[in-house]
Amino acid sequence: MSKRRKQHHEDHMDETWLIPYADLLTLLLALFIILFASSEVDSKKYDNIMRSLNSAFSGGTNLFEQTAVVPITKDPTDMNSKKTEDFKSESQSTQEAKEQQAQMEKEMVDLKELKQKLDQYISENGLNTQLDTHLTNELLMITIRDNAIFASGSAEVKPDARKLAQNIASMLLQYPGYQVEVAGHTDDIPINTREFETNWDLSSKRAINFMKILLPGDKIGDKRFSSKAYGENHPIETNQTADGRAKNRRVEVSILRNLKAGTTVPVSSQ
Questions:
Q1: DSSP output for 147-183
Q2: Does the pLDDT value for residue 4 go beyond 90?
């Protein structure tokens, strides 16, 4: 009976080798998982992981019993630095927005003051039928009828109109830093003279001649000043009547704002 039991026991293979083999597979699996998870971690964190693995393979504390798990997170120093940079950028944008807003308000105050001075000059000199001013969010425009400056079909500024141009120029000089645009306009009646082949030529020469009087002698070529010629292409009244054609024949002096409404960066409420 004892011999039979002994023979039956010897028929089973020794399977104790499976235990270290399973441990080895477990460690390999953990190795691949950790390597995959740490593929984008910096070298310092990678060294920490490798020390943990060496400890596990050399009989130290089991890898899964480590209490210090290496988190895959960003360096707190980097995060704080980024927050500081974002704060500085936001503060700078807010400051720039405030400065722009202050500049816009100053420009509007300047142009309102200039308009008041021009309107007072027009009223005191009885020029209401010849000059007009108009203020928008983009510019202050002075509109001058052509008969107040030029003879019919001519681009030469009348002697008495030079004083008008000089007075306008003296007011403009009180508000430097603005672009000044002088534009010439005509009615739609064709012109073809020895001096002017088209209305475009006439409006161009008129704008240039009037602009030259606005510029002091030492300011000729000032990049703030420019002239444009529109001919009959931008009428403000009908050309079917004599009164309408008279209103279309004009010179416009526009003082342009550097910052227009709607161009500023919103100021942060923080």
A1: GGTB-TT--SBPHHHHHHHHHHHHHHTTSTT-EEEEE
A2: no
Question: CA distances (Å), 156 to each of 173, 178, 180, in order?
Answer: 24, 27, 21
**Mean pLDDT, residues 136-143 taken together:** 94
Q: Tell me how far apart the terminal alpha carbons of the chain are, to the nearest angstrom.
A: 94
Rounded to an integer, what distance in angstroms lies between the CA atom of residue 48 and that of residue 203? 82
Residue 52, CA distances (Å) to 34, 176, 205 in order: 11, 73, 88
Picking from 123, 114, 166, 162, the residue whose alpha carbon sits closest to that of residue 141 is 114
> What is residue 188's predicted lDDT score, i.e. its pLDDT?
94
Q: Quick one: pLDDT at residue 173?
A: 87
Token pair for 147: 């008969």
pLDDT attached to residue 264: 43
Between helix 43-57 and helix 18-37 the angle, nearest 10°, is 180
- Looking at the predicted structure, is the pLDDT value of residue 22 above 80? no
The more confidently predicted of residues 18 and 179 is 179
Do 179 and 259 touch, CB atoms closer than 8 A? no
Closest CA to 74 of 112, 105, 125, 40: 40
CB 190 within 8 A of CB 199: yes
